[in-house]
Amino acid sequence: MKETIYVDIVCKRFCRYFKYGKEEMHCGGYRLLVDNFTVPELQQLANMSSGTDDIKNRVPEYDENLFNLVCRSCDFHIDGCDYRENRSGPPCGGYILIDSLLND
Fold first, then answer.
1. Which of 14, 40, 47, 85 is in the most buried spot, having the most CB atoms within 10 Å?
2. Domain count of the chain?
3. Inter-CA distances, 30 with 15, 57, 59, 92, 98, Å
4. How far is it, in rounded angstroms, from Cα 41 to Cα 14?
5. What is the extent of the structural domain holding 63?
6. At residue 56, does pLDDT exceed 70?
7. pTM over 0.70, yes/no
8. Could you give the dihedral angle defined by the CA atoms of residues 83, 84, 86 and 92, in that order, rounded to the nearest 10 degrees?
């Protein structure tokens, strides 16, 4: 079950795909962030994040590393991912925050 404070920071604030009723499912980024950051640390990261500004311009090797770290464990990946497949949509909120952590 997702924790409300983490949902507010990661999902509601950064994820265009967020919908109520999916509390049992976790994107890979959400899981990684909850497992490794306290709420204050994550709030600070969220406040510093530039969102999706430069994500689509990342080099393929960098993107592949994030895919292995974040996307492979994503509950939603089984349905396909517009960002991963053809960049027709933005990445999920967890991916955006992890990208910010590595690049800001």
1. 14
2. 1
3. 10, 22, 23, 9, 9
4. 16
5. 4-103
6. no
7. yes
8. 0
Residue reference for tokens 């497992």: 35
pLDDT of 103 > 60? The answer is: yes
CA 33 to CA 98: how far, in whole Å? Answer: 8
- pLDDT tens for 3-43 read 889 999 999 998 888 888 877 788 889 999 999 999 999 99
98: tokens are 């992890």
Q: What amino acid is encoded at 20 in this protein?
A: Y
Contact 12, 81 (CB under 8 A): no
Distance CA 29, CA 37 (A): 12
